[in-house]
Amino acid sequence: MLTMWSKARELAEMTPPERNRWVDFLRAISILAVVFGHWLMAGLYVDEAGELQRGDLLSVAPWAHWLTWGFQVMPVFFLVGGYSNGVSWDATTGKAQPGQTGVYRDWLASRVQRLIAPTFPVLLLWGVLAVVMTQLGLDRGQIRDATEAALIPVWFLAVYLIVTACTPLTHKAWERFGWLSFAVYVPLAIGTDWLTFSVGVPYVNFTNFLWVFLAIHQLGFAWRAGRFDNRLFALAWFAVSLGILVSITVYGFYPVAMVSAPGGFSNSLPPTLALFALGAAQVGMVLALEPAGRKMLDNVRIWTATVLMNGMIMTVYLWHLTAFVLVMTVVWLGLGGAGLDSVPGTAAWWATRPLWLGIYILALLPLIAIFARNERSFGPIRGGRTVPKARVVAGVFLICAGLAATAGVTIASPDSWTGIRISVVAAPFIGAALLGFGPIYDMITRRRTKLDSAA
Q1: What is the pTM of this model?
Q2: Is 386 within 8 Å of 105 (Cβ atoms)?
Q3: Using one digit for the tens of pLDDT, what is the confidence trace for 246-276?
Q4: How many independent structural domains does the chain possess?
């Protein structure tokens, strides 16, 4: 860790003065909020009969539903994504030669690569574990629970990749139409909820993954364009959005909880107008704090910590629930459930939270040490040539479909002899190979070279 800190310190000291450090800080803090939120809300415990029960704070403490307004901060990540994708796309098009082809395809493949590369190890690990546990005769329901708990975070990547792929169109829409390019998503989200809850149209609610997060992504363009530089405007944006959120949750029919919780439908899977309002409120709040935040980040130690966190951001996000599952497995099978005798929400349970959070962090650290290198290890796209358009489309589609299925139906199979849904596990890897990067592409090209030589 000292070596990682030293490298982060070097990078921090080389940061160009024009870089908006608040962007990096928000990216780091939003992921950390999600991580600690998951660790806090989850709560396995042993009942009086000695049986392990799946419990969570939201099930036993309705007041905790309000905590999700602070821990459900995925909209902030999409805000940062809009800002960063805008910077990256402008830089790419600015360097492109007149008439140059394949600019978008190479740009998209590069952006996808940075997100998907750290995902391969966790998918492989849990695919192998599911197969091994199945062959050992473990209960398939328990295998499903473990894989589902560990891999549910990948839903975000599927949505984010689609939103990123739309950047050239959405960025052009912002430049031409300004605020209207954001406002158009409001009636789309409202209409989707109306069709879902009033008319009962099935599956249409899943389109809100696009309308809600594309809207927040547009606000990233607005932020970069200086539309939130006026602090009074940012505070007013926050106040109005918060007022709408309160009116449709406290006084409306939307649940207060911004994640899946008992007693109502989910505001996040898929998103609803309530999550849209929460995201807008969060945007106003964090951008109102930007001047103070950027001043804070002039402190070299705080900025170094931010750089360090951003260098392992996807590893932390993708592996934090694996760390949780491993800890619970060791405690239950190896220690007989020691420390799991407190029911979530009780005073005894709260008193032990700092200890358990510390244990989860300790379990996550070796995973970071092993897998963080994958965030930058795949290098440039192979072959030195533009990836054909059809391959890019097919590659991104397979990656997103595979990740969505991983989160939605899990990789565990209830009847396959392997114990896994092979097509679900394989889809992201095949998609990555089609995009032309990574070890899979290297294996394919080496094999093709050998065949060509033999012929």
Answers
A1: 0.90
A2: yes
A3: 999 999 999 999 988 777 789 998 999 999 9
A4: 1
